[in-house]
């Protein structure tokens, strides 16, 4: 059960006295409520009322963002103040707009920036990364079963031309797992990559909360789903890491699995425009 979250102005007054500005909602995630504070700060509050969850979440995020700041070539948010007992975290706001909202996107520069970013991130010593993130907890088989259940609940509302290929995908065995796990952002999506609206160049990367030790395909797959195969090809041209056998197959598999999951969620929540976009992406991925 989710408890009452204090008013953001009250949280801010306790968390960072003297740091003020107009407070406006930015959104609500599964775990957090988020507000913009002025033009350059973001306040995030954990929704779970359990003090242990609040404290653990904030302490993990503080450590994770500090770690990302040392190793990421794309600027993450920087922690300004934290109150683990209140489940509150105040960070800088990465400048720019989300890539999905940008009317101008330099895709060549984007691909080059992502290639440098993923090369550096995946080269981080996994022993060091294990201090701030855990291994991806679920196997491909577990993911496939879970997504299959989510799809089955909405299958009647899926476009008829997609049902057979989706069900064929869900009925096939996943590729063998990666042998070497790397530090993954695990959500390099077009609403998390920030860009300068004037130049279209990348300014940073937000939402590090899903970071794991995992298959590099986790990061490459979101490049494929959100930015397309041409951007992924250019990213791979500049990706200076050893490529384990089967990486391309796992990247396509993760991309398809995530889009089936995304489609089920959009149907369940009544997001028709999002469902149409996801269906178009899924058609392309399943035809590949």
UniProtKB/TrEMBL annotation:
Aminoglycoside phosphotransferase domain boundaries: 23-243
Domain of life: Bacteria
Keywords: Transferase
SUPFAM superfamilies xref list: Protein kinase-like (PK-like)
Pfam families reported in the protein's UniProt record: APH
GO molecular function (one): transferase activity
CDD domains, per the entry: APH_ChoK_like
Protein name: Aminoglycoside phosphotransferase family protein
Species of the source: Nocardioides guangzhouensis
């Amino acid at each position: 059960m989710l408890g009452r979250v204090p008013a953001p102005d009250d949280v801010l007054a306790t968390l960072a006295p003297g740091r003020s500005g107009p407070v406006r909602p930015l959104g609500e995630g599964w775990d957090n409520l988020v507000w913009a504070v002025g033009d350059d700060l973001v306040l995030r509050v954990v929704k779970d009322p359990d003090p242990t969850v609040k404290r653990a979440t904030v302490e993990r995020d503080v450590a994770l963002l500090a770690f990302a700041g040392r190793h990421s070539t794309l600027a993450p948010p920087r922690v300004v103040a934290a109150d683990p007992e209140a489940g509150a975290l105040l960070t800088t706001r990465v400048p720019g707009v989300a890539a999905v909202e940008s009317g101008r996107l330099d895709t060549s520069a984007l691909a080059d920036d992502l290639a440098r970013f993923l090369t550096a991130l995946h080269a981080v010593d996994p022993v060091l990364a294990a201090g701030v993130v855990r291994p991806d907890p679920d196997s491909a088989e577990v993911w496939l079963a879970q997504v299959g259940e989510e799809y089955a609940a909405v299958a009647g509302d899926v476009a008829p031309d997609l049902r057979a290929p989706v069900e064929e995908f869900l009925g096939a065995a996943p590729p063998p797992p990666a042998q070497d796990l790397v530090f993954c952002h695990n959500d390099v999506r077009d609403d998390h990559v920030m860009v300068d609206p004037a130049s279209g160049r990348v300014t940073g990367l937000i939402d590090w909360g899903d970071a794991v030790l995992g298959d590099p395909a986790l990061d490459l797959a979101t490049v494929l789903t959100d930015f397309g195969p041409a951007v992924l090809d250019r990213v791979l041209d500049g990706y200076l890491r050893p490529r384990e056998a089967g990486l391309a197959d796992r990247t396509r598999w993760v991309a398809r699995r995530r889009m089936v999951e995304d489609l089920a969620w959009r149907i369940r929540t009544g997001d028709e425009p999002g469902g149409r976009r996801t269906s178009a992406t899924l058609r392309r991925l399943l035809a590949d």
